[in-house]
């Protein structure tokens, strides 16, 4: 550490995101935020779909066709997972806010649970959507 | 710290009231959680409805929204969703945008977009529900 001037300019921050391997609860936490942002953007599609339904059969069919296209379905698949994840993680946050289970072991366990359950929920929704 | 100029006549609540850095933050915090809790059952209902309407023709979607229970539940879901989305995005901005003006603009634009989308989607639902 001879270059003190350099060290002064850029002191290490901790935890430094580039070298710090995020633990599962941290990944789970930032995923909650990303899915929230994605769902906020998704409200544009929801509004578009409702307005199309209100404006008549032609516009509604266009909306259904776009959503039913391969890219549309891929977006809806991502939306379903984001929806399920944010819902489940949100419930965990509400439980935390009530002061229950605020400890490392519980965070570790529930983060894994939320990830697993979000994929299961996505699968259930899509199987149901195609079966019904 | 508690002993500083504490003459013993004022209650602790009286001393801190109006002096906290969060000011009215407590009420906002609670409102956000209340809406989130409200959204939990509503979004489950919404997800089930979306699955049932996945392959809907225009007439099916219209018939579905003609039922008052569906229209009312969807209206509540929409308003709660846009409130939750705008508030959630605000929290993200407050964490990551450090410039005061940029943060204000981001929050303002998001709130404006949320109000506009909420109005459009609510109008669409009402138009269908009242028989368009």
UniProtKB/TrEMBL annotation, chain A:
Q: Keyword set for this entry?
A: Heme, Iron, Membrane, Metal-binding, Transmembrane, Transmembrane helix
Which residues are noted in the entry as heme-binding?
Answer: 86
Organism's domain of life? Bacteria
Cell compartments where the protein resides = Membrane
Stored CDD domains? SQR_TypeC_SdhC (cd03499)
What does the note under cofactor report? The heme is bound between the two transmembrane subunits.
Extract one GO molecular function annotation from the record: electron transfer activity
GO CC, sorted alphabetically, is: membrane
The protein's required cofactor(s) are namely: heme
- For the keyword Iron, the answer is yes
Query: What parts of the sequence cross the membrane?
Result: 30-51, 71-91, 112-131
Biological process per Gene Ontology, one example term: tricarboxylic acid cycle
How the protein sits in the membrane?
Answer: Multi-pass membrane protein
The record ties this protein, via Pfam families, to:
Sdh_cyt (PF01127)
List the InterPro entries hit by this protein, alphabetically. Answer: SQR/QFR_C/D (IPR034804), Succ_DH_cyt_bsu_CS (IPR018495), Succ_DH_cytb556 (IPR014314), SuccDH_FuR_B_TM-su (IPR000701)
What is the protein's quaternary organization?
Answer: Part of an enzyme complex containing four subunits: a flavoprotein, an iron-sulfur protein, plus two membrane-anchoring proteins, SdhC and SdhD. The complex can form homotrimers.
Similarity-based family: Belongs to the cytochrome b560 family.
- Its recorded name reads Succinate dehydrogenase cytochrome b556 subunit
Which species expresses this protein natively?
Nitrospirillum amazonense
UniProtKB/TrEMBL annotation, chain B:
Q: Which cofactor does it need?
A: heme
One Pfam family name is: Sdh_cyt
Molecular function terms from GO: heme binding; metal ion binding
Provide the Gene Ontology terms for cellular component.
membrane
Q: Which GO terms describe its biological process?
A: tricarboxylic acid cycle
Where are the membrane-spanning stretches?
A: 29-48, 69-89, 101-126
Q: What does this protein do?
A: Membrane-anchoring subunit of succinate dehydrogenase (SDH).
Subcellular location(s) of the protein: Membrane
Output the superkingdom of the source species: Bacteria
Check the record and name the NCBIfam families matching this protein: succ_dehyd_anc
* Stored InterPro entries: SQR/QFR_C/D, Succ_DH_anchor, SuccDH_FuR_B_TM-su
Assembly information from the UniProt record: Part of an enzyme complex containing four subunits: a flavoprotein, an iron-sulfur protein, plus two membrane-anchoring proteins, SdhC and SdhD.
Q: How does it sit in the membrane?
A: Multi-pass membrane protein
Question: Record keywords: Transmembrane included?
Answer: yes
Organism of derivation: Nitrospirillum amazonense
Q: State the pathway, as annotated in the record.
A: Carbohydrate metabolism; tricarboxylic acid cycle
Keywords for this protein = Electron transport, Heme, Iron, Membrane, Metal-binding, Transmembrane, Transmembrane helix, Transport, Tricarboxylic acid cycle
Q: State what protein this is by name.
A: Succinate dehydrogenase hydrophobic membrane anchor subunit
């Amino acid at each position: 550490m001879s270059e003190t001037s350099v060290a002064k300019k850029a002191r290490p921050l901790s935890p430094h995101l580039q070298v710090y391997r995020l633990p599962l609860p941290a990944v789970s936490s930032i995923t909650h935020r990303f899915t929230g942002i994605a769902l906020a953007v998704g409200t544009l599609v929801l509004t578009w779909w409702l307005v199309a339904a209100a404006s008549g059969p032609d516009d509604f069919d266009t909306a259904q066709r776009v959503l039913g296209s391969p890219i549309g379905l891929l977006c809806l698949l991502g939306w379903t997972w984001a929806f399920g994840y944010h819902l489940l993680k949100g419930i965990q946050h509400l439980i935390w806010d009530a002061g229950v289970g605020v400890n490392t072991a519980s965070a570790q366990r529930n983060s894994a649970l939320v990830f697993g359950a979000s994929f299961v929920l996505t699968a259930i929704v899509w199987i149901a959507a195609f079966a019904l | 710290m508690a002993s500083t100029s504490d003459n013993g006549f004022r209650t602790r609540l009286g001393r801190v009231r109006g002096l906290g850095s969060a000011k009215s933050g407590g009420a906002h915090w609670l409102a956000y959680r209340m809406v989130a809790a409200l959204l939990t059952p509503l979004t489950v209902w919404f997800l089930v409805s979306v699955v049932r309407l996945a392959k809907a023709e225009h007439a099916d979607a219209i018939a579905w929204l003609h039922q008052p229970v569906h229209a009312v539940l969807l209206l509540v879901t929409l308003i709660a969703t846009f409130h939750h989305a705008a508030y959630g995005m605000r929290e993200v901005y407050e964490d990551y945008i450090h410039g005061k003006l940029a943060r204000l603009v981001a929050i303002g634009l998001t709130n404006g977009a949320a109000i506009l989308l909420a109005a459009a989607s609510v109008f669409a639902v009402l138009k269908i529900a009242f028989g368009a």
